[in-house]
Amino acid sequence: MRDATGPDAPVLAIRGATKRFAGRLILDGLDLALGAGEVYALLGPNGAGKTTTINLILGFLRADAGEVRVGGLDPATAPVAARAQAAYIPEQVALYPGLSGLENLRYLATLAALRLSRSEAGRLLDEAGLAGEAHGRPAAGYSKGMRQKVGIAVALARRARLLLLDEPTSGLDPGASADFARTVRAAASRGTAVLMATHDLYRLREMADRVGVLRAGRIAEEIDPRGLDAAALERLALARPAEEAP
Fold first, then answer.
1. What's 30's domain CATH number?
2. What angle do CA 187, 193, 199 make, to 5 degrees?
3. Could you give the angle at the alpha carbon of 41 between the alpha carbons of 220 and 153, nearest 5°?
4. Domain range enclosing 127
5. DSSP, res 244
6. 65-80 pLDDT, tens per residue?
7. Contact 190/180 with Cβ under 8 angstroms?
8. CB-based contacts of 66: which residues, under 8 Å, 6+ apart?
9. What is the pTM of this model?
């Protein structure tokens, strides 16, 4: 793993992270590094530790041992500064239903002390892949994929260095899933590092640069998704699940 403080430091660096809940080992010496413009898929069943990993990155949990750095900052001791480097998009993005996508983006930007003109907000929504005709429509009629794109536009407005995605393609139809994959790749092309916790095996080849298989609280194997054929996907899909973790 690269030096966490040098000029070539990864955007995200996790070294030897261990976490227990009620005496149960959830993360067991997890190592993970992610550089600018990389898309990393963290693959594993419920209970493998994906959510715990995201919570450590956001500073909502503190590792029992090891270290976590986001842009060189420790989210456990400097949570506000570390979170300013990252944007988290949950499985279900909550927007104000009576506001349009454009209005949601401009309002959410103000919460981060940013002022966006209508033209700036429209450009960011375009970059996030939201169709122009949807910019002025109430978010109450948005699909999951459309809401996620507004979330990505917020991340772009904040110039977040790290984008955290939690099950981003669950519930999307094949067309929407392919469209979202293009949105993720576009964000990465602008230098944003993307960590994606997922069960979805079938978009890995087009979305991810690397795939880490999380088992028993550590990366059991790391895979180049370009080499995943149908047999490899089936092997990953049939991997023995773990009990659900916090």
1. 3.40.50.300
2. 90
3. 155
4. 93-158
5. P
6. 999 999 999 999 999 9
7. no
8. 14, 15, 16, 17, 18, 29, 30
9. 0.85
